Amino acid sequence: MTDKTILLGYATQDKTHGAGVYPVHLNLKRANRHGLIAGATGTGKTVSLQALAESFSQQGVPVFLADIKGDVSGISQAGKSHPKVNERLQALELPTDQWRGCPTVFWDLYGKRGNPVRATISDMGPVLLSRLMNLNDTQSGVLSIAFAVADDNGLLLLDLKDLRSMLRHVSETATELSSVYGNVSKSSVGAIQRRLLVLERSGAKKFFGEPMLELDDLMKVDANGAGIVNILVADKLMQEPAVYSTLLLWLLSELFENLPEVGDPDKPKLVLFFDEAHLMFKDTPKALVEKIEQVVRLIRSKGVGVYFITQSPGDIPDSVLGQLANRVQHALRAFTPREQKVVRVAAQTFRSDKSFSVQDAITEMGVGEALVSTLMANGAPSPVKRTMVKPPVSRIGAASKTEVSKVLKQNPFAKKYATTVDRHSAFEKLAKRAEDAASEAAEKKPSRKRVNKAPKPRGRSRQGVVETFAKSVARSLGGKAGRALVRGILGSLFKGR
After folding, report:
1. Which 3-state string (H, E, C) describes 163-215?
2. Would you put residue 367 in left (φ > 0), alpha (ψ -120 to 50) or beta?
3. What is the pLDDT of residues 180-233, one digit of tens each?
4. In the chain, what is the greatest distance between 2 CA atoms, to the nearest angstrom?
5. Per residue in 305-325, pLDDT tens?
6. Contacts (Cβ under 8 Å, ≥6 apart) of 454
7. In terms of Cα–Cα distance, which of 338, 271, 326 is closest to 303?
8. Is 288 exposed, middle or buried (0-12, 13-18, 19+ CB in 10 A)?
9. pTM value?
10. What residues pair up with 337 in beta bridges, in sequence order?
């Protein structure tokens, strides 16, 4: 049985090695070995992403991608004839009348232009939360203690108010917790609380809560067997790059932890496209980068393919870059010494075809051209080919508001995720504990019995006041003179008594 493939484009061979146009394919069975789409701004990365995503969809593979600039939403609409597109299709001997869109579901962290994307605090975990809040090692340790205390006491951490209550509880019981869990610094707790406030104001509050995103909802096909294209509306989200990148890391880790092992299926169960991938590794602790490398290396056996989209291969750590077997490299600029070095490194990562200079091609290619190398059926990388990328049959560019609204009306998950659920969790339980403790303390406090005392004569009361005043004066004056004055005052006041 022949493996199914995806047509990426056509490679034009150099005349000295024979003229002709040769198809360049991606083997579906090797599509879960991950990939990279790289290139400078304006070289055609987004079009390559869209063409590859719709090809996966046509083969029955669900797709998740982030729409950074709002220009990928057109994948939901049928394309239309355009002189430049038609010219490319005719050059590649492809039909010019088979325009169609992909079944699409929109997701939006803020819930305005798609289904809300939510995760619980517990599922996010202390490691990703620490990165999200940019905590130092000490603060991260205290946050981990807060999670451990919550787990040991059966306290659910679902949203930000749960975490805030948990941190307050840890601060109030810091002394007794330190003997069991390690040192708990109240100053560290205070720093975390301040970072939490900043996080809340950045809009992340909407990310935490229930109902949480169910992974199965990203892995659907329509009635015709086409894979659903799940689009994360991220143009506004990109204003908070830490939230954006942490969301993607969380999604990746959730898939890794929850999906069963399937080995190398005939086609992926899900393909993820992470645009602006460099943000996932910016200011990321070494330990977390190592975790990402591990997940990327092992998640292929779960049937998941991960494709990173960025300007330069150098934006991806070498440990992760080495796992990206299917590559589409658009043109790079080489104006500065640093850029020239990047070009040389990028050229060295390909298996050379020897029919052309890879390094020269990277700087010479036009828009819509790319250097392509994919895994062959035997698992070996194919020789790199200078390729004219196949245009998508869906709309290039953004869908209109009316078209997006129409897609949203057909949303199969609208009711499921529309309303937030606030379960009985850490916030409510800790508030109840505090209330019960206050009531118990009030009951144990001894009541003061009222004792009826005979009223003191007014003169006696006045005497007490005068005596106090006199003694105060005496202390201020001091010595014999003071005592004499006191005696004089008292004598004059009580004369005749």
Report:
1. HHHHHHHHHHCHHHHHHHHCCCCHHHHHHHHHHHHHHHHCCHHHHECECCCCH
2. beta
3. 999 999 999 999 999 999 988 887 888 999 999 999 999 999 999 999 999 999
4. 137
5. 999 999 989 899 999 999 999
6. none
7. 271
8. middle
9. 0.84
10. none
